[in-house]
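Example 3.2
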Amino acid sequence: MLSHLAKIYDPLGLASPVTLIGKQLYRDVCDEKIPWDTQLPGPLLKRWKDWNSALTENLTVPRTLVPYHQPISSLALHAFGNASAKGVSAVYTIVHQDQGVIQQFVSAKSRLAKKNLAVPRLELVAVHMVVNLITNKQATLNFLRLETHCWLDSNVTLYWIKGQGEYCQFVSNRMHKIQQHNQVNWHHVQTEDNPTDQGSRR
């Protein structure tokens, strides 16, 4: 199982929704403390077979962010974050040119959420991952003038980000790191319109 995860070469995280399921499955197997040479029990074995059969040998993704040989009117990075029992985030570009508006998937990142955390705290951890991901992409594209926007479906987390209240240490530490990136514009998105919802709730 671990070898299957290790074989997936995905530096941009484009297969994050798929690999996240594999990571969750591997953690569940470890939690069961099953000996390495013992067959998996029925439910875990079924999950493993379902996940393994869904994997593809190759995946082709268009990588051209600016497809037209025309001046760029504007370019923006939009990152979306979400969390449940799992965590995931993704970054897209929106490019305005005379030929039209182009939306392109840039990268994503997934990480297993810590256990026994309340949903608002899980959302906060996901937001920390989102802001790190988008600022890393912004640094990579530093030769371009662009805006950065982060979208969340958690009103509680947005309140924490925009508020100046006194919070517990867990929240305060992450708020301090997130608020250092004052160039990021924060927005609310409905859960059904959040593209990362599919990856975090599968």
